[in-house]
Amino acid sequence: MRVVIDEDMALLREGLSRLLGDAGFDVVGTAGDLPGLLKLVADTSPEVALIDIKMPPTHTDEGLQAAATAVLLPSSYLESRYADALLENRPASSGYLLKERVYDSAVLGDALRRVCAGECVIDAAIVAQLLGGGRTPGPLDDVSEREREILSLLAEGRSNHSICRRLVISPRTVESHVRTVFMKPDLAESPDNSRRVLAVLAYLQA
Prior knowledge:
Order of helices and strands: EHEHEHEHEHHEHHHHH
Radius of gyration: 17 Å
Strand content: 5-15%
Distance between the termini: 35 Å
Largest sheet: 6 strands, parallel
Strand order of the largest sheet: 2-1-3-4-5-6
CATH superfamily of the largest domain: Response regulator
Number of helices: 11
Structural class: alpha/beta
């Protein structure tokens, strides 16, 4: 898998490059700011980019602006507004992990493969913060407690098989709950939208 890395701290940038190289990824280039990243993506056509959210020149949200391919955003900032913005603009092929999690090569590699496969991966700590905030009425207000648990795991990018193992329930039970959620209004699937992603968006962004 071809990966580019954008991180303004040279030591961390090189560390991530070595970590991914040792894990079998093909790191085709690194950059330290937004202009460098945009040129790198144009020159190398990577399958996925590992991009810091806050980087030069303004250290605000360049990582979100630069998301032009499958992208994983590691950040030191536990701020749900970044996850909100990511979900709104890129509900698939994207992820947001806290930096402390990307130092684990297994976690990082799994997240990169999943966003490259079209999934949305949000750090469990971010999901917890999103779910803990105030909510406004939405299409998923009447979901059951079990369906709420499943939605929370879907928001982390978990597969049905992973949800079965986590909740110790059968695949048929998971499928049944997911099917019930998909029958809610405003979750109609189209060529441009996956009901799985729409369900997560409806729940997190309500």
